Each structure stands twice: as structure tokens, then as C-alpha cells.
Amino acid sequence: MDGMMTAPQPQDMGIHGVDPAELEKFMAEKVQSEAPDEANEFLEGIQEDGLSAEEVDEVRQVTLAALKSPDAFPQLTAYLVNAELIDEEDIPKEYDGGFVLAILGLVGLAQDLVTSSTPQ
């Protein structure tokens, strides 16, 4: 047994075997190209509310939790509504993986926005 490599554990493999950072980058590009108006509206909300990089990262963490476990979807939707990032009527009542992935893409765009506007 010494010297044998062990297989990566599921928690090491991200979300469904995909690195969360890669998934976020892919979804950011997809959202920006397929729903530019919605992306711009979300980003304007981030700017208007003055969300910090840390707050955007909180949204990311809640979103990743909902991707890993649909049971966390109510926490994500509550967070988005309470932060006034999305209107409640725009959020699906039941878990919707596509919606959560779109939020992950929007969070990726928002992170780029707040990072680029933060003084160095």
C-alpha cells in the first residue's frame, strides 16, 4: 500500500467533478453572451449597492452551496432578495440548477467588476 496514490475524494473534485472556478468562468462568459441585458442589470445593482469584493464572495459561497446541495436553494434565494440583487418574482419557486448556474456566472462577472474598481 505504501506509495500508492489515492483517488481524489468527492469533496476535492468541486461540483460534480468540475472545478468551481472553471465553472464560474464558463458561466460568466455564457451569461454575458446569451443574456447581456440581465447581466448588465445585475452588475448595475452591484455597483449601485456598493457591494465589496467580500460581499460578492459571500454571494459566491451561498451560490456554490446551492449547486452542491439543492437544500441550500432557499438560503440563496433569500440572500439574493435581501441583498436586493434580484426581484423575488424573478426567482423560481423550486430549485432550478440552470438558475443557480446563471447566478454563479453573474457572480463571476461581479467579482471582476468589484476587483477592477477596488483601489490597489
Your description of this structure?
It is a single chain. With 120 residues, this protein is an all-alpha fold. It has one domain (19-117). 63% of the residues lie in helices and 0% in strands. The chain has five helices and no strands. The protein has helices at residues 20-34, 36-49, 53-68, 73-82, 97-117. It is globular and about 35 Å long.
Radius of gyration: 16 Å
Question: How much strand?
Answer: under 5%
- The helix/strand series, from N terminus to C terminus, equals HHHHH
Structural class: mainly alpha
Q: pLDDT under 50 segments (min length 5)? A: 1-13
Helix content: 55-70%
Distance between the termini: 49 Å
Q: Describe the main β-sheet briefly.
A: none
Total domains: 1
Total helices: the number is 5
Which descriptor suits the 3D outline?
A: globular
Mean pLDDT: 80
Tally of DSSP β-strands:
0
